[in-house]
Amino acid sequence: MTKVLRTTYSKPYVDDPEDDNPWMNRVRKAEKTEKKKPEPRKDAPAWVPPAREDKDPPWLKTISSLATEKGREKEGLFLAEGARVVIEIAEYHKDLVQGIYVDETFDNEDLRKKIKEANLRINSLTPAQMKQVSAVVSGQGIFAVCRLANEKPNYDTAHIITLVDSVQDPGNLGSIFRNAVGFGVDGIVLGRGTVDPFNPKVVRGSSGCFLRMPFETGIDLKERFLLLRQKGFCIVATSPYAKKSITDLTSRQSKKIALLIGNEGSGTNKQVSELADEWVKIPMENALDSLNVAVAHGVLSYQIAQTK
What we know:
Elements: H1 22-35, H2 58-64, H3 69-75, E1 77-81, H4 83-92, E2 97-103, H5 109-117, E3 122-125, H6 127-133, E4 142-147, E5 160-164, H7 170-182, E6 187-191, H8 200-205, E7 215-219, H9 221-230, E8 234-238, H10 251-255, E9 257-261, H11 270-273, E10 278-280, H12 293-306
Parallel strand pairs: 2-3, 5-6, 5-9, 6-7, 8-9, 8-10
Antiparallel strand pairs: 1-4, 2-4
């Protein structure tokens, strides 16, 4: 009689995978449990990809900050953008240049040669990096980073000083600096409320020559009048209602002139202009009563230069 091997279970063991074997069922159940992926918790936060690593070097952010007055004060640097500006500063003030940067596609070989002759190094940027730094919409693909520096006017030896009251357009102030250099002005005093002379648009508007002109900024003009009078200056303001022109001033008054010019829209502050020694106008035809502040400064500076 054949004996049947029995286990603690009630059914006999037969080596058949289809049989309802408790051991095999346990193995299969374990395998299914391992393969089954746990469902995420309903309250689990959504997966967020890691932030993209910033590929721009830290020094590029520093350069970009020079577009702001706060950034320039913090770093002690300013931007000089454009071919003519860079050449001007490389020629006259290369000791202030910290570095010159060009778009990697920049192909002005003559300019590269002049920069190398000044023993200044050229660094390349990608077009995207150049666009990030540029203060103008369509730049020329070149700029210099320079140290903040300026020479103050010498009131003992100066004969012509320009006093600027609250001119806020950087292009106008840049043109005023160019006029001053072109017509032999000896210094510029920038009153409070006037745009920063190291603003990139002022630097560009002056073609970089603003550093040739001695100047000081953030000055209380009413207080500066006291010093100017002690140094023998005649303070001259402009007014469309004045009866005199620059050429009508006496030889004594013309010897040392401090010309006061004002804001583009409102003109010179009344509390400042009323302290002037003389008021002059620019004779004009066709019932035109005013000129752009930079144009007016150019005309008056030219007239003063002719009286020397």
